[in-house]
Write a structure and sequence with these properties.
This protein is α/β, with parallel strands linked by helices. Helices cover about 30% and strands about 15% of the residues. The chain has a single domain, classed as Aminopeptidase (3-Layer(aba) Sandwich). The strands form two sheets. The protein has a six-stranded mixed β-sheet with strand order 1-2-4-3-5-8, with helices on both faces. Strands 6-7 form a two-stranded parallel sheet. The two termini are about 30 Å apart. Bound molecules: zinc ion. The site of zinc ion (ZN) has 4 residues, from loops.
Length: about 350
């Protein structure tokens, strides 16, 4: 099917910040989405009381997680120390080297999946590469765990206009959190006993978009992966998939994505994952859709599911922070200080338990 992912930059919308945000993750199956020029609507100061309709939940179960939360957080910090990891940048190349060594040392089979696409600003070919790590590659039935490892070329939503420069957007939550989680999870993968083999997919060019160059496409890496998987019919099959994005917020709360609940093939996966969280007592997984976000999240799961035919569910905490609503998202304030190893260890634990289910 033809998927068109376009962005019109600078359009104003009167939707709530949640709705703006959901649209700004871009889309499949619709030609155009709006770009939220700002998400700085202030509801309440940080750490203030909860507005009605929003539930604050914190579980005290991190101590039981087999993931090392301190090490996970150090990985997040290390990745951010590279600076912005924009597609094609030296920092991205350095990140690829670090991750290749890291996953190989822990027993993963690593490969780079290179691809190119037209640069949105001048149309020349832009090189990019997904990084794929296979665990137990002999298994035919597999699970795909996807994160993006590129960062947006600029922090468009930074409150001070001069801070919207690309060199100030670190993507600690929107980029490094998923990478750090996989780096930590990797310590447990070789010994994993599961009916499934597991592949980590770190996609490039999830959001290689420029604020002053409409229209543009998102999700180049996941689209390439999905098309390649469909075209080459490998001897294995992905039975389930999950996308992890923005899961490092130190005030973690993960509502269910509307599409992931709505689609017949992803609904059981969503149920499994949130059921696993409930069993473990990880209360930050909230078993319903966000009360104020009426639009489905548009992220790499759309490509993996709609193009790759891999039933893939989305896991995202799209309140970053909870109050003021999403103020750090796509800003110079998306830094390690706003993230926590607790959040990484909790989400990683749920995923680790989930991949062992039959
Ligand atoms: Zn983003």
């Amino acid at each position: 099917m033809t998927c068109v992912c376009l962005l019109i930059s600078g359009c104003q919308t009167t939707d709530s910040p949640w709705e703006q945000g959901a649209k700004n993750k871009s889309l499949v199956e619709q030609p155009v989405t709006q770009h939220a020029a700002s998400v700085d609507e202030v509801l309440l100061p940080d750490d203030s009381d909860t507005p009605s309709g929003i539930v604050l939940t914190v579980s005290e179960t991190t101590g039981n997680s087999p993931l090392d939360k301190d090490r996970a957080f150090r990985f997040l910090q290390d990745i951010c120390d590279l600076g912005p990891r924009v597609t094609g940048s030296e920092a991205m190349q350095r990140q690829q080297e670090i991750l290749t060594n890291h996953f190989r040392n822990l027993g993963g089979k690593v490969r780079l999946q290179k691809f190119s696409f037209p640069h949105p600003q001048h149309g020349t070919r832009q090189e990019a590469a997904n990084l794929i790590v296979e665990w137990h590659p002999e298994k035919r039935d597999r699970i795909l765990i996807c994160v993006h490892y590129d960062t947006r070329p600029q922090g468009d939503n930074s409150r001070v206009p001069k801070n919207q420069r690309g060199d100030l957007f670190l993507g600690a939550n929107d980029g490094a959190s998923g990478v750090a989680l996989l780096m930590e999870l990797a310590y447990l993968m070789r010994e994993l006993e599961s009916p499934y083999g597991v592949d980590f997919l770190l996609v490039d060019a999830e959001e290689f978009v420029f604020s002053d160059f409409p229209p543009q496409r998102y999700f180049w890496g996941s689209e390439y992966f999905a098309r390649d998987y469909q075209k080459n019919s490998p001897p294995y099959q992905y039975k389930k998939g999950v996308v992890l994005d923005m899961i490092g917020d130190r005030h973690l709360q993960i509502y269910q994505d509307r599409n992931s609940v709505w689609w017949k093939d992803t609904r059981p996966i969503t149920k499994e994952i949130w059921g696993t969280a409930e069993r473990l007592g990880v209360k930050e997984f909230i078993g319903r859709t966000h009360p104020k976000m009426r639009t489905p999240i548009r992220d790499d799961h759309l490509m993996l599911r709609n193009v790759g035919k891999i039933p893939t569910c989305e896991i995202i905490d799209f309140d970053y922070p909870r109050f003021p609503v999403n103020r750090y998202w796509h800003t110079d304030e998306d830094t390690p200080a706003r993230c926590s190893g607790d959040s990484l260890a909790k989400v990683g634990w749920v995923i680790l338990e989930w991949v062992q289910l039959p």
